[in-house]
Amino acid sequence: GEDVEQSLFLSVREGDSSVINCTYTDSSSTYLYWYKQEPGAGLQLLTYIFSNMDMKQDQRLTVLLNKKDKHLSLRIADTQTGDSAIYFCAESGNNAGNMLTFGGGTRLMVKP
Amino acid sequence: EPEVTQTPSHQVTQMGQEVILRCVPISNHLYFYWYRQILGQKVEFLVSFYNNEISEKSEIFDDQFSVERPDGSNFTLKIRSTKLEDSAMYFCASSVVGGETQYFGPGTRLLVL
Fold it and tell me: pLDDT tens digit string along B96-108?
């Protein structure tokens, strides 16, 4: 079945850029998403990219998609301590039920 | 801003008991979903629901599970006879149409003793 993989952990200093990476296997993915989960909270949609796009920018967030390598990244510019959370990559394949397949999440720690 | 809500936020139950988890999707959304996240594991798809019927379900969604939209606003997940391994965070989500962005609720943390 489809699989989505992410590195477990990333630590950056406040003010630096963070880059969180994700790889996926489903070549029929239509949308790819980034969700943020703060401790004890639900999944907050951060941004998404349609599979025919290479890049999407939304304020401090930049999403890059390399469809050939099935690689997705999320760059957070000027990372703040409030960005500390778990970031989940997810993809929706070409299936009738529109299920999302999630990666395991990357825990971002931002040091002051 | 409209959001998906879920109740209760936490539920503790004894093994073998039935539980019903409730969700109120965003009002103009037509597709509804349940996912679960066992502690330390990935978020896993359970079921999607559209037009009063199940669109797709995963292997996890066996006969112990059922979903229902009992009225115009609620969407429920019932676990008929809970097992220890059903302990997880259960997330409800909704989307305007299928294949579009899914918005998640805050989750219900279920603990089966």
Answer: 876 678 899 999 9
Residue with token string 């790819």: A32
Q: B95, B104, B108, B109: best mutation site toward chain A, by most A Cβ within 10 Å?
A: B104
For residue A91, the Cα-to-chain-centroid distance in whole angstroms is: 10
Helices (runs of H) and strands (runs of E) counted in chain B: 0, 11
Residue A79: pLDDT over 80: yes
Interface test with A, best of B32, B34, B43 (most A CBs within 10 A): B43
The model's pLDDT over B39-64, given as tens digits with 9 standing for 90+, comes to 888 999 999 999 899 999 999 999 99
**DSSP 8-state class, residue B61:** -
Backbone angles phi and psi of B14, in degrees to 5: -90, 145
